[in-house]
Amino acid sequence: MLYASVTAADKRIALRAGLSSAKILRYPGAFNPLSAKLIQQKGFEGVYISGAVLSADLGLPDIGLTTLTEVAGRSQQIARMTDLPAIVDADTGFGEPMNVARTIQTLEDAGLAGMHIEDQVNPKRCGHLDGKQVVDADTAIKRIRAAADARRDANFLVMARTDIRAVDGLDAAVTRAKQLQDAGADAIFPEAMGSLAEFETIRAAVSVPILANMTEFGKGELYTVQQLEDVGMNLVIFPVSLLRLAMGSAARGLDAIEQHGSLSTMLPEMQHRADLYDLLDYASYSRFDSGIFDFTLNPHISTPSSAQGLKEHNV
Fold first, then answer.
1. Whole-number mean pLDDT of the chain?
2. Is residue 273 exposed (0-12), middle (13-18) or buried (19+ Cβ within 10 Å)?
3. H or E stretch including 237?
4. Residue with more model confidence, 241 or 1
5. Residue 186 bears catalytic tag
6. Is pLDDT at 203 greater than 60 in this prediction?
7. Any catalytic annotation for residue 213?
8. Considering the chain, what percentage of its residues have pLDDT values greater than 90?
9. Of 79, 283, 307, 313, which one is least surrounded by beta carbons within 10 A?
10. Residues with Cβ within 8 Å of residue 304, at least 6 apart in sequence
11. Are 243 and 53 contacting, i.e. CB atoms less than 8 angstroms apart?
């Protein structure tokens, strides 16, 4: 009932243990707290919180417009609704190294299990758009060092994302990944890889866990979880997938209303009311204190909408 039964500290331990296992971890992207509960219900290992999704949720493009306050606040709302570890996209860290340090501690306080910071210039842009620019190695290294030094929980995961592959090629990505690992990164997120062979090349270059991004309509192919595990990936994210599915379904529903004046033909595509109530765990709220409020009406009140009736029966 209410929020997660697992502490943030224990979620971080679980994330570390999962990354140390022989199995790849699957982290679908949650676009709101309810979808995080669904991810847990479906048996996945963790929840990813995408910066692109957080921007889109505000009706904004993914070009560095969100603030630390917005990202931390929404991330906390999502992370606290699930017992699973949650990793968040912290863009470029929201400023210089001291700002990066503050970002880390703010995200720790928000209950996240980890985060990643990228090496793009600020303002950044979506990793699968053209025209990206990356910072020099010294700036990228300082960001990761600041993040690693600032955390108070040693199990809080500091992941380094590098976008340099699309700018300067694979060899530059290998070099940057090694530099970021040496700077203290607990894991590497090589963005926009061109093939499975490129993932394998990064795998051979570093010893820390590696994340693979399976975002639709991007620069790279969509590989299966098994394919990625076979080339040594430790974690795979599906960052915007649930949002795209939900928005696609919503658009089709609106079209049906416009064309037919009814959604009766789309009922099979909807989450049933009973399934929603099960996901929200209505029953536990009712059990919590049925003497106060158990979602039933006093049978002696014939007109429950009447303010006078409610007053007379102390409801």
1. 91
2. exposed
3. strand 235-238
4. 241
5. no
6. yes
7. yes
8. 82
9. 307
10. 297, 298, 310, 315
11. yes
Whether 116 is catalytic: yes
User: Is 108 annotated in the active site?
Assistant: no
Is 96 noted as a catalytic residue in this protein?
A: no
pTM over 0.85: yes
Catalytic member of 16, 74, 125, 161: 161
From 12, 213, 229, 234, active-site residue:
213
Determine which one of 26, 126, 128, 155 is catalytic: 126
Examine the residue annotation and report whether 126 is marked as an active-site residue of this protein: yes
Between CA 244 and CA 249 the distance in angstroms is 8
pLDDT digits (tens, 9 = 90+) for 100-147: 999 999 999 999 999 999 999 876 666 555 667 899 999 999 999 999
Q: Residue 186 above 50 pLDDT?
A: yes
So what's the pLDDT on residue 298?
A: 55
d(CA 91, CA 159): 11
* 89: annotated active-site residue: yes
* pLDDT score for 302: 47
The one catalytic residue among 45, 119, 186, 191: 191
* Mean per-residue pLDDT, 73-78: 98
Annotated active-site residue in 16, 45, 89, 155: 89
- What is the C-alpha to C-alpha distance for residues 115 and 151, in angstroms, rounded to an integer? 11
Catalytic one of 48, 74, 143, 176:
48
Report the top-level CATH class of 8-240. Answer: alpha beta
Per-residue H/E/C for 106-135? HHHHCCCCEEEEECECCCCCCCCCCCCCEC
Q: Where are the alpha helices (DSSP H) in 236-272?
A: 241-260
Which of 45, 91, 163, 198 is the catalytic position? 91
The domain spans of the chain are 8-240, 248-294
Cross-strand pairs, 26? 236
Q: Is 118 a catalytic residue?
A: yes
Pair of tokens at residue 293: 């409020």
Rounded Cα distance, 109 and 91, in Å: 18
Confidence of residue 218 (pLDDT cuts 50, 70, 90): confident
Residue 57 annotated among the catalytic residues of the structure: no
